[in-house]
Amino acid sequence: MSARPEPIAQTNLEQAAAWRIRLAESPDLFRAGFSAWLAEDPINEQAWRAVQNPWMFLGEQATSPSVIRLRRAALVHAYNALRANWLRAKLRRPPVRLAAAATVLVGLLAGVLWWQYRPTVYTTGPGEQRSVRLSDGSRVTLDASSEVTVRYTADARSLVLLRGQARFDVAHNPQRPFTVTADGHKVVATGTAFDVNLIGSQMRVTLLKGHVVILPANASVRPFVPVGAPGVNPRMVDVAVTGIPPDWQRIALDPGEQLVLAEHAPPHVARVNVRRVTAWQRGQLVFKNERLAQVLTRINRYIPEPIVAGDARTANTRISGVYQEGDVDGFVSTIVSYLPVQARDLPNGSVVLTYRPPHLQGPGAAAQ
Q: Is 3 part of a structural domain of the chain?
């Protein structure tokens, strides 16, 4: 068994950051002293890498104005501390002000990396919809009670749908894959439009135009081979991935196809009515022979207090129809009129639907 690396002490990090400051100021003057310090202790080399790696990242990758400002502030702070101390210290040990500057630099580097990689979160409340234009020109349209995080880097566009439903209109960029992770799966695209809907334990991916590939969430994605390249099947958009289980077959969709992923059921792909799938963007919900439990999950996105199925028989009842988003009274009235279901209002404003016995069914039967 290989030995575990020694933890890096704060003192080592401060010294490494101090040398980073000196080398940024006058590399020729301090190069020999730096080499001697590096050879003193293996921990020094680990500390140097801990400081140098994010520093190199900032210098080579970070181009946003906010990151540039933070990096410049770190250098200015370090420069001022160094000018005030280097003549007096003779490089024998980092003086107090330089050590403090080094500590600030370590903190700034960590803060800049957090700033660079932090996700942006977009949410909607009950009955609210929201359309967001992203920095690359892509657009995310959120349905009610939905949440998505967005993290962009130089070579990837990574989004996570945490709850609800969203449409993704992706700006084309074959060298910067656009991925949406949800419910243990990853939808991969470069320039396309698709809809992802999380309904309880079920996930639905509908391709509106273009091409997508669905993979396990932990798959590592590298840039696409451009569509139309020699030997590339346009339906099986080529993407280099790693981390796929041996028993997993990647799934590609054509426009108008919907993939349904559910617990304890194999993946199912079928052609669907795209206008029906995207009806939520026009203020309508369209259901075709769906379980009432799934219907209620979607209905509840638009109202402050939920409608719940009070028993398994009611939850498994199948319904079809077109309903207006947020019209609770109209929905409940339709349900109790055409199904063997009765409704009961609770003091907290929610509604419970339960099975209506045969002696209460039939024309003129009143909802309880």
A: no
pLDDT number for residue 117: 56
Q: Single out the residue in 250, 272, 294 at which a domain terminates.
A: 272
Domain identity same for 267 and 306 = no
Angle at 183 between CA 179 and CA 185, to 5 degrees: 45
Does 105 lie in the same domain as 80?
yes
**Is the residue at 155 inside a domain?**
yes
Q: Mean pLDDT per 10-residue run, the chain (368 residues)?
A: 56 77 74 89 84 60 51 54 48 50 57 62 94 95 96 87 97 89 90 94 95 84 58 48 60 93 90 94 92 93 93 93 88 90 92 83 44
Centroid of chain to Cα 263: 22
Long-range pairs of 181-188 with CB within 8 A, sequence gap ≥ 24: 181/217, 183/261, 184/216, 184/217, 185/214, 185/215, 185/216, 185/217, 185/261, 186/214, 186/215, 186/216, 186/217, 186/219, 186/221, 187/212, 187/213, 187/214, 188/212, 188/213, 188/214, 188/215, 188/221, 188/239
